[in-house]
Specification:
The chain is of the alpha/beta class. The chain folds into two domains: 47 residues; 154 residues, Ribonuclease H-like superfamily/Ribonuclease H (Nucleotidyltransferase, domain 5, 2-Layer Sandwich). Helix content is 47%, strand content 21%. It has a six-stranded mixed β-sheet, with helices on both faces. Helix 3 packs parallel to helix 5 and helix 6 crosses helix 7. The chain starts with a helix and ends with a helix. The C terminus is likely disordered. This is Putative ribonuclease H. Its EC number is 3.1.26.4. GO terms for molecular function: nucleic acid binding; RNA-DNA hybrid ribonuclease activity.
Length: 213
C-alpha cells in the first residue's frame, strides 16, 4: 500500500489495481510460506549436527571407523539405541592395519552382527562415510577389495524386516567415533558394551575427538 501511495504521488501514469484486497492476501500468504520455509531450514541445519532418535519401532545403529596416521592401525566402533534413545549395546573392534574405509566396513559388519544377535527387526543405520553408504546402496563389483565384507553386510541386511541407511555428518556420530578411536588401544578383537561406558571414561573418549577437531 505504501508503494501504491508513492506511485499515486510521483507516477502520473499509475493506476491503483482494483483487486487490492486479493493482492494483499496473496502477498501475506507468500510471506507466511517463506517464513515457514526459513524455519524448516533452520531446524534442518540444527539436526545435521546433532544425534536424533530413530522412528518408533526402529533401532538406530551408528558406526564409524578410524585410522592412526603414523602406525596405520585401524579400528571401528558403534552404538545401538532404541527409539527412546536408550542404550542397547555398543562395541569396538581393533582391525589391525589398513585403510580407513576397511575400518568403516568392519564397523558396519560388526554392528549388523550385534543387531542380529539382539534380534532387532527394524534398523536405521547411520555412518559419516559417504563412500561406505554408496557401496552398500549401489553395490560394487565382486573384484572390489572389500567385496567379501560388503556382501556379508548385505546378507545380514536381508535378515531385517526394514532397513533405513543414511549418511550423516561426523558431529552427529560422536559416540561411535569415540568408540572407534578407543579400539586402537585394545587387542585385535571385538569388545561389546551391554551398558554405556562409565561417564568419566566416555567423557575422556569424547574429549579425544574434540582435541582432534
Amino acid at each position: 500500500m505504501w508503494k501504491w501511495r508513492n506511485k499515486d504521488i510521483f507516477d502520473v501514469g499509475f493506476h491503483r489495481p482494483y483487486n487490492t484486497s486479493h493482492i494483499i492476501l496473496n502477498a501475506t500468504i507468500k510471506w507466511s510460506h517463506a517464513q515457514s520455509k526459513l524455519n524448516l531450514v533452520v531446524q534442518y541445519c540444527f539436526n545435521m549436527f546433532s544425534w536424533t532418535m530413530p522412528d518408533d519401532g526402529y533401532v538406530k545403529l551408528n558406526v564409524d571407523g578410524t585410522r592412526a596416521g603414523q602406525s596405520g592401525q585401524i579400528g571401528a566402533g558403534g552404538v545401538l539405541n532404541d527409539h527412546n534413545g536408550d542404550w542397547l549395546a555398543g562395541f569396538m573392534i581393533n582391525v589391525g592395519k589398513g585403510h580407513v574405509l576397511t575400518a568403516e566396513a568392519w564397523g558396519l559388519l560388526s554392528g549388523l552382527k550385534l543387531a542380529t544377535d539382539l534380534q532387532v527387526n527394524k534398523i536405521e543405520i547411520e555412518s559419516d562415510s559417504a563412500i561406505l553408504i554408496k557401496l552398500i546402496v549401489e553395490g560394487c563389483e565382486s573384484s572390489h577389495p572389500l567385496g567379501s565384507i560388503l556382501n556379508s553386510c548385505k546378507s545380514l541386511l536381508n535378515g531385517f524386516e526394514d532397513v533405513k541407511i543414511k549418511h550423516i555428518f561426523r558431529e552427529s556420530n560422536m559416540t561411535a567415533d569415540a568408540m572407534a578411536k578407543s579400539s586402537l588401544s585394545h587387542d585385535p578383537e571385538i569388545v561389546i558394551f551391554n551398558t554405556p561406558p562409565p561417564p568419566p571414561k566416555l567423557q575422556v573418549l569424547l574429549w579425544m575427538i574434540f582435541v582432534e577437531l
